[in-house]
């Protein structure tokens, strides 16, 4: 399947290009070569800082960028980075305006599991997209993703014999195609999606699934201010070697959005779905009704609504009452306000579930102000979630702020800060962490052809944990002789964990490159 | 059509009957409404719009260049073609008075300067993928008046998807505190540009979540981690998000980043195993009559190794416990 889809995409691309006279082409691009110097402190835990998992010491074909144009209307773009290293990425696209777009993206990366960097896995991802416009009322969209993961992992806890084992040999394929017919703002779409998971280390774990879906949308003929959106789907996911063990899924959804008056709008959503799961030996039905009212003014909008949800799985019935309120708006571009509140209560009607009743709520407030070269913002979040019958409660607050000073001549200074306070309690013991996270950056652009930047991100976690992490960077780029450039980047990584895993990490990394920009006509 | 509810709550329709009801209702509604929209003529509002490109080039010829290489490019041979797939006025609606009378007084619409619903209506005349439908239905962005043009820039842009910037920097511009979450010690590699925000929040979630809501957040996680998501012969309700037990990946894991290994929300370690005791809060192995105190202080997952779901044990136990007699009839198996 993978080969067929990729071959089809490439054949379309080549077919289109072969019809184009070569002499009518234009090319431009960038070639960048350089190196990476990685210095890690002795006895550092090499799994401590994820940011360094995919840095490889040595020569680096840093970038190959190629943009081509043929016969004025065929466009090809190729962008490859770190081509010779195991952190390589690539992007290829082809566009024929109004008719075809095709893109493919590739990347691979490493995950590190042990302090000596001996136990690692490697993931490779392909993502492809294809869009074809057949005519003014019919188009097709397709997607195909292919992912592999190989290598080793640590069994968890060490020495246990989970089906997950201690190695990877996985392949995941996903594909989606949709045909959309549309005319004057109304449309009908039919789609098919498949997934396939292959586990080379434990074949019993292989899975595959599909979803057939349809969508329709449009406004009411005599009430053009009333828009309808419909969706329906059927699907299943099954174990390929599991004696037919599968989930069967089905759903139907309607959303109506009406704005009969300039100042007032309504939204109604109905959802009905079903999941049959022999693993849990039950069938779960889910029915939702949501209704919202929106008031529009010249300064923004205020909205509020309620929802009622029922979950029925044969053994137990739970229902949810949801209330929400929010506003967003501001004065011209100078100030923006966003606020929302939501409260949700779950009732276990027969007290047959383990968790029984639930109450949770969330409140968020964000303010942003822009004045000439200065932008400042603050945010506040508070959330609680409580299972009242079993004595479990989690609470969290977050206060954040950011600042940006930007001048077209000099450059910019940006900084943001967040303090998160999270506490969790149950009948056994509480767990609490407080974290302070700061990121900042200065960009200096005053000198033509020279860009300099410096910045940091700093994280401190306290209370039941004691972790400190920082990354400091300096980088610069200079353009000379019209088409040439040199650039560098210097990063310093530090990590200390004094309680949880008692480990540290320190590293210095330097990247340097020389680049050449070219164009051929 | 119905049978007694084993849970004691009256009667419930049989599985087959309920499936038939839901499927029949959905199919009927989809057929009638969906087909009706295509058959019915469009609203009068849409028919009065004028379509033009060539006349626009008299004053805005430099703008055409800013579309080169994108799907929005208007080819020269289409400038005066009324049947062309795209015209300037498709995105910038207005009327002839703009060029016939006074362009200052009778301005054309600039999608970047209108309310999100107006922008969405303009863009969705052509762009009708699940992403656009989700936005129109009112996801968090549209509710907060974030329009298409807040993330996408049509003119003079060479980024994939015509995004204004690459991910995640584009998303961080508004979600400033999310940048900090991806600095945590255990996290998804988003700031490293390996995983994109849209891989979880858009692509999978949009094509699956809203068509099959029950797959919920798990659907996004399963696109890369299917080995942890069922079906399993023995499911753990904590992992399935359609469960009446409030399950799902996010019951135990943080999506962006965590202070704890395996991106868990609470410690999965001795002495308190808060991750497990958030649900299993009634003292179990420490005091239960079968084991006495022999398991006190032993990590939960020393025995319950397949906690995402098991192929062999309804208690997700390690198969090595078989030799210890734990699977004997009357104990943990079947």
Q: Give the strand tally of chain A.
A: 26
Summarize the main sheet of chain A.
Answer: 26 strands, antiparallel, barrel
Strand arrangement across the biggest beta sheet of chain B: 1-2
- Percent helix among the residues of chain B? 25-40%
Question: Radius of gyration of chain B, rounded?
Answer: 28 Å
Q: Identify the biggest protein-protein contact and residues per side.
A: A-B, 170 and 130 residues
Order of helices and strands of chain A: HEEEEEEEEEEEEEEEEEEEEEEEEEE
Biggest β-sheet of chain B, characterized?
2 strands, antiparallel
**Strand content bin of chain B:** under 5%
Gross geometry of chain A? globular
Characterize the overall form of chain B. elongated
Low-confidence stretches of chain B: 1-15, 34-48, 207-215
- The string of secondary-structure elements of chain B, in order, is EEHHHHHHHHHHHEHHEEHHE
Q: Gyration radius of chain A, to the nearest Å?
A: 28 Å
Q: Would you write up a description of this structure?
A:
The complex is a heterodimer of chains A (521) and B (334). By secondary structure, chain A is mainly beta. Chain A contains 1 helix and 26 strands. Chain A has a 26-stranded antiparallel β-barrel. The radius of gyration of chain A is 28 Å and the shape is globular. The two termini of chain A are 39 Å apart. Chain B is mainly alpha-helical. Chain B has a domain at 54-166. Chain B is 33% helix and 4% strand. Chain B contains 15 helices and 6 strands. Chain B has helices at residues 15-39, 44-47, 54-65, 88-91, 97-100, 116-123, 130-137, 140-143, 148-151, 169-172, 176-181, 197-209, 216-222, 274-277, 300-303, and strands spanning 2-4, 11-13, 186-187, 234-235, 257-258, 309-310. In chain B, a hairpin with a 6-residue loop joins strand 1 and strand 2 (11-13). The longest helix of chain B is centred in the N-terminal third of the chain and has 25 residues, at 15-39.
């Amino acid at each position: 399947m993978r080969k067929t889809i990729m071959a089809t995409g490439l054949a379309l691309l080549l077919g289109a290009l072969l019809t184009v006279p070569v002499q009518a082409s234009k090319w431009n691009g960038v070639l960048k070569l350089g190196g990476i110097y990685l210095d890690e402190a002795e006895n550092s835990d090499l799994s401590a800082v994820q940011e360094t998992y995919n840095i490889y010491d040595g020569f680096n074909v840093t970038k190959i960028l190629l943009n081509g144009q043929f016969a004025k209307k065929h466009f090809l773009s190729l962008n490859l980075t770190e081509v010779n290293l195991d952190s390589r990425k690539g992007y290829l696209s082809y566009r024929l305006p109004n008719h075809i777009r095709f893109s493919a993206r590739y990347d691979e990366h490493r995950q590190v599991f042990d302090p000596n960097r001996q136990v690692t896995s490697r993931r490779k991802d392909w993502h492809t997209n294809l869009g074809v416009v057949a005519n003014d009322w019919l188009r097709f969209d397709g997607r195909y993703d292919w992912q592999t993961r190989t290598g080793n992992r640590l069994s968890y806890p060490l020495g246990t014999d989970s089906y997950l084992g201690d190695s990877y040999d996985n392949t995941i394929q996903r594909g989606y195609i949709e045909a959309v017919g549309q005319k004057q703002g109304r449309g009908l779409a039919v789609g098919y999606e498949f997934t396939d998971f292959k586990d080379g280390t434990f074949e019993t774990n292989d899975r595959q699934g599909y979803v057939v879906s349809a969508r329709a949308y449009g406004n009411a003929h005599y009430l053009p201010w009333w828009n309808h959106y419909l969706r329906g789907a059927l699907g299943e996911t099954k174990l390929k070697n599991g004696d037919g063990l599968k989930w069967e899924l089905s759903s139907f959804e309607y959303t109506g959005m009406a704005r009969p008056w300039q100042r007032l709008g309504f939204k109604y959503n109905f959802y009905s779905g079903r999941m049959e799961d022999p693993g849990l030996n039950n069938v779960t039905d889910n029915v939702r009704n949501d209704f919202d009212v929106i008031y529009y003014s010249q300064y923004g909008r205020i909205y509020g609504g309620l929802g009622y949800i029922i979950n029925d799985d044969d053994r137990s019935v739970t229902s949810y009452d949801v209330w929400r309120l929010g506003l967003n708006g501001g004065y011209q571009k100078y100030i923006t306000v966003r606020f929302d509140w939501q409260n949700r209560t779950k009732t276990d009607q027969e007290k047959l579930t383990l968790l029984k009743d639930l109450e949770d709520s969330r409140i968020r407030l964000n303010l942003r102000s822009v004045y000439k070269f200065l932008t400042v913002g603050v945010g506040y979040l508070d959330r609680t979630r409580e299972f009242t019958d079993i004595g479990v409660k989690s609470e969290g607050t977050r206060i954040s702020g950011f600042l940006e000073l930007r001048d077209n001549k000099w450059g910019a200074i940006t900084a943001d800060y967040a303090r998160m306070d999270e506490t969790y309690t149950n009948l056994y013991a509480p767990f609490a962490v407080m974290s302070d996270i700061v990121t900042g950056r200065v960009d200096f652009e005053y000198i033509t052809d020279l860009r300099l930047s410096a910045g940091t991100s700093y994280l401190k976690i306290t209370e039941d944990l004691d972790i400190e992490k920082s990354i400091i960077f300096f980088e610069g780029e200079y353009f000379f002789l019209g088409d040439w450039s040199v650039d560098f980047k210097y990063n310093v990584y530090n990590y200390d964990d004094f309680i949880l895993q008692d480990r540290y990490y320190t590293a210095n990394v330097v990247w340097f490159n020389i680049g050449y920009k070219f164009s051929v006509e | 059509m119905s049978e007694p509810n084993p849970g004691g709550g009256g009667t419930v329709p049989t599985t087959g009957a309920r499936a038939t009801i839901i499927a029949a209702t959905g199919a009927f509604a989809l057929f009638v409404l969906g087909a009706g929209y295509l058959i019915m003529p469009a609203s009068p509002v849409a028919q009065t719009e004028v379509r033009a490109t060539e006349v626009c080039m008299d004053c805005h010829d430099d703008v055409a260049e800013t579309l080169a290489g994108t799907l929005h490019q208007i080819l020269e041979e289409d400038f005066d073609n009324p049947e062309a797939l795209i015209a300037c006025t498709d995105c910038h609606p207005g009327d002839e008075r703009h060029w016939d009378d006074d362009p200052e007084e009778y301005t054309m619409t600039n999608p970047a300067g209108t309310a999100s619903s107006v922008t969405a209506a303009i863009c969705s005349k052509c762009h009708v993928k699940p992403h656009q439908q989700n936005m129109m239905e009112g996801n968090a962005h549209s509710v907060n008046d974030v329009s298409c043009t807040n993330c996408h820039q049509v003119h003079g842009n060479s980024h994939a998807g015509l995004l204004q910037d690459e991910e995640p920097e584009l998303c961080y511009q508004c979600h400033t505190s999310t940048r900090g979450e991806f600095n945590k010690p255990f996290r998804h590699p988003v700031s490293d540009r390996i995983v994109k925000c849209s891989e979880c929040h858009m692509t999978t979630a949009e094509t699956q979540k809203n068509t099959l809501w029950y797959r919920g957040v798990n659907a996004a996680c399963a696109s890369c981690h299917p080995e942890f998501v069922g079906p399993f012969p023995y499911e753990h309700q904590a992992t399935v998000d359609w469960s009446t037990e409030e399950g799902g990946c996010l019951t135990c894991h943080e999506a962006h980043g965590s202070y704890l290994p395996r991106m868990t929300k609470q410690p999965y370690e001795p002495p308190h195993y808060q991750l497990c005791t958030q649900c299993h809060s009634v003292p179990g192995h420490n005091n239960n009559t079968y084991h006495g105190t022999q398991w006190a202080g032993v990590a939960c997952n020393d025995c319950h190794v397949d906690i995402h779901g098991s192929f062999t044990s309804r208690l997700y136990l390690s198969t090595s416990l078989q030799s210890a007699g734990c699977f004997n009839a009357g104990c943990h198996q079947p």
